[in-house]
Amino acid sequence: MVRLLFILALLGLMRQARADDIADPMTWWNQLSESVWQQPTLLRNITIRTGNATKARRWDKTMADFSGLGFVQYVPIEDMDFMRRLNPKEDLSELPNDLLLDPDLLQMVLVDRGTKMSVLSNTSKHYKSLGSWPLSAQDRKNSSTMLTWMSRNLGYDAVVLDARDGLILAGLLKNTSELGQGLLVKQSAKRWVIKESNTRGEALLQMLKTNGSLAVFEVLLAKGKTLEVEKGSKILLGQNNNWMKIMQPDAASKTKTTSPEP
Amino acid sequence: MRCLWLILLFIALPGHAAEDVLTLDAITQKAYIRLQNADKILSGETSQAQWLRLCQGLGQNLLVNNSSPGFLAEYICQRDIQEPETAEDVPWRITFTARPKFIDIDIQFQAKGRWIPVQTFSFHLDGEFLEDLQKASVLRFLSRLIVESLPTGWVYTHTAVGKNLELIMHPDMPLLPEELLIYELNYMPAKNLWMPKLKARLGRKQQFRNLEQGRAESFEWKRTYSPLREGERYWIQNSKGRNQRQAEYEKKINGETQGFSLLNLLDRMLFESFSSNYAGLRYGHSFVQGESVITETSLLSLLLEMRSGPLAGLRLYYDLTPRAEKEHNGLVEFFEMSRTSLGWSWEFTPPDAWDGLISRIDVQPKIGLLSFQSELAVQDSVGEYQLTAFEARRVLNLNVELGLEKESLWLRNRLWASYSSAKASIVKSNGVSVTSARIGVDAYIDLMKERNWDLKALAFGYAERLSLERDPKSIAAADSDLAIRQFGFNLLYVGGGITVSW
Fold first, then answer.
1. Do B2 and A81 make contact, defined as CB atoms within 8 angstroms?
2. Is B181 close to A52, i.e. CB distance below 8 A?
3. Per-residue pLDDT tens for A52-95?
4. Does B193 touch chain A (CB under 8 A)?
5. Does domain B274-501 have CATH number 2.40.128?
6. Is residue A2 exposed (0-12), middle (13-18) or buried (19+ Cβ within 10 Å)?
7. For chains A and B, what is the number of CB pairs under 8 angstroms?
8. What's the pTM value of the predicted model, to 2 decimals?
9. Would the ipTM clear 0.95, i.e. be above it?
10. Pairwise CA distance, residues A153 & B371, whole Å
11. Which 3-state string (H, E, C) describes B291-330?
12. Residue ranges covered by each domain of chain B
């Protein structure tokens, strides 16, 4: 244990020296290829729908600044409905409604059902129910409380966008400038929701740089000798016992990260 | 309601059927610009040169460059009647069609060998369009009007890094829309559906600055849905949709060319019907009450109204009241009349405030020839009825008619009134003078619309007070000891007919 703590401290010092050489997360983000968006559980754009037009407008208002809080963007009606404004009304009247949405835009749709919020995922243009979670008046108060609600129920704090040269670019559910540690959750790339029982660690990460909702992490410790970081993998932040979850006698080795081609 | 279908949609967990879609890349779009009926319009070298300048000017403005929103990488000016040989590979076609009173610009997109109408602008211009439209400023406004009307919008090349970006525009142009959407675009031919794939939303920042190369308009990234690649081209359009600022460009172009006005669908139909020629046949029956023979009369009428071409304004009407007979006090009365009128119409557009009530006002001076023959039972001095003739042949009369017309999509109504006075000396021909006051209404209802002609049903009704006065000299010369000096009667005809317009 002492040896492990020593290694961690040493890596921390090395990180400081290396931070200046790390690419800015935004620069990295701007260089990402389209393939990153093909990851089926990469959550970027959501919307909230309700059967009542007034409530829907209220949600658009409540969530107006949601997109500035983190990596996940809220898509209001005005953007989701753009197809209606590009096509003549008479040409749309006979068409099935599902054609009138931007099919690639939304990854998740939250449906307001009063005391609960149902969550639908959009994978390969098919909407699938992920479940319903209680939604209190406090939760629906503003975009920040909604983000907290989402983070709590989705069960993760960041998602892997890219990995190369031992570094990971991740999108943060909530913007932060604090350079904390994180846990890369094992086999989480295909999961929309991370439950407590799924939080087996694969690697311990150290955040090196942040820029808004983007962060660059370095792998401090990994479970195996090689670590393949899948795009879409989820990261838990700020949990002091993260590293405990992967502290196995054979795990204390720094591993080069690679990202499998999509 | 819209939200309701959205929620139903999501709850129904729909799948998107695999449909055939075309991707419109923002790099290789081409168009050819042509003039319909060019062989008729481009008769001389001057007109050919004017067309070429207009076409090239517009084409240049529609090209993607740094200071003008464009959507084309290339354009071709069609000079011949035939389409260019490369037309099959050109996705866009912009066609100018000069009609009698307005110009159409049709923008079409080619998908799977078929030309799909995307946008039509119809506009009226006081001057000569080949000449007026080639002004540099007009072409700039016209091209902006076009790109803001297209599902593509115009091309945005991504260069921005950071929170803000600047778009360089020509300083004369109106400021860009307040919010813009950046997107990729697909087209689904089977459903005639333009399918944007949103990338980001931009919002205007207050300030802009004038640079040497143009006016730099500052925008901030409001939402980014997926990353934009440095140097890549996307489509960008007013977030409110297509065609949101027509009135603004109309005003700008109007400031540069006299009498430019964009026509909406109704205006266009209005102009079209105003510029259509009509020929028709109608029949009506007398609705006058009483015992007179006039109650038995009917009306057969031919009409010709020229509203375009060299004879635009000409009106020709022939009304025939065939011989009608009726027994009255044991005597058989008869009445017949024919009237030919030749007129010329001057049309006026009413003030905008009257638009809801009146689409057009016209004034028509007419010259007419009226022939009239009757034998009516008239009481003599001892109270006995005798048949007395009143006859007039080819009586010249002048009248003036005022018409108020209201047009809707399928109906044209015209309320009119005319008056001719016996006071003018010219109307006293053949010893008879005519005084007439008429008021009537005509309604044209669309029955059939073909490419070059329309068929309309016509319903009409008019009331007339007609007075004929015989010159005393001609009465003195008459053989009969019972003569009618002045003969006045009321006519009221209601009926219908059919017209062909072209």
1. yes
2. no
3. 778 888 999 999 889 889 999 898 888 888 888 898 876 677 66
4. yes
5. yes
6. exposed
7. 122
8. 0.66
9. no
10. 95
11. CCHHHHCEEEEEEEECCCCCCCCEEEEEEEEEEEEEEECC
12. 4-263, 274-501
